[in-house]
Amino acid sequence: MSTTYPTSSADERETAIEAAAQAVQRGGLVVLPTDTVYGIGADAFDHVAVQALLDAKGRGREMPPPVLISAATTLPALATGIQAYVEALTEAFWPGPLTLVCEQQPSLTWDLGETRGTVAVRMPDHEVALALLERTGPLAVSSANLSGLPPATEATAADGMLGEKVEVVLDAGASPGGEASTMLDVRLSQPRLLRRGALSVEAINEVIQPLGCTVIEDDDA
To answer: By the 8 A CB rule, do 190 and 153 touch?
Structure first.
């Protein structure tokens, strides 16, 4: 059964972040706010915890969770073969609603599911999420909902769907965004749109077109 922690004041936030960090270190699951929707998170390097996350959502290993980080400087530790335009993207849009699918570092020992050697990485623009990530390191985080249901934009909604599976719920009020992040495959010389989201393709192109790049848009993205 989960415990919900408010995060309105500095003291509340410190108590909440510490409780969530300890839960993650024990291999538990937590619900955390982000700038898009609420997420359910686990230690990205704890394969048992990641599998528990997928099980809690009713999600298969063929849909591995993205990894959230607290600083763009962490990306090279998780990804290899980073294209030159990626730095421009992270400078412009991180923290923010942009998820980048990269080639993962072969030395990593984690098991996020059937990733086919890739990792999806994002730095969220939410102070509670970033404070937690600074203490825990990279977290595997998926939207806080049962598979097939709408993502939770309130802590109470996330708790209602996942409360029996998580240890800690961090309540920071309504999600400021409410729309999922835009997702790009950045493994090749031109980024490819995998999912439309809160960040527009036009905004992305404004940043990368001076570098000779344009987002490749598939009809079904």
So the answer is: no
pLDDT for 219 equals: 64
Confidence (pLDDT) at 220: 53
pLDDT mean by block of 10 residues, the chain; 221 residues: 96 98 98 96 97 96 96 97 96 98 94 94 98 98 94 96 97 90 96 96 98 87 53
Residue 49: per-residue pLDDT: 98
Query: How many other C-beta atoms are found inside a 10 Å radius of the C-beta of residue 15?
Result: 14
What are the counts of helices (DSSP H) followed by strands (DSSP E) for the chain? 7, 12
CA atoms within 13 A on the CB side of 22: 8
Distance CA 132, CA 66 (A): 16
Is the Cβ–Cβ distance between 46 and 29 less than 8 Å? Answer: no
Instruction: Write down the domain spans for the chain.
Output: 3-217
Q: Identify the residue whose tokens are 């623009």.
A: 125
Residue 111 burial (C-beta neighbours within 10 Å; 0-12, 13-18, 19+): middle
What is the structure's pLDDT at 97? 96
Kindly give, in sequence order, each residue whose CB lies less than 8 Å from that of residue 58, ignoring residues fewer than 6 positions away.
146, 147, 148
Note the CATH architecture for domain 3-217.
Alpha-Beta Complex (3.90)
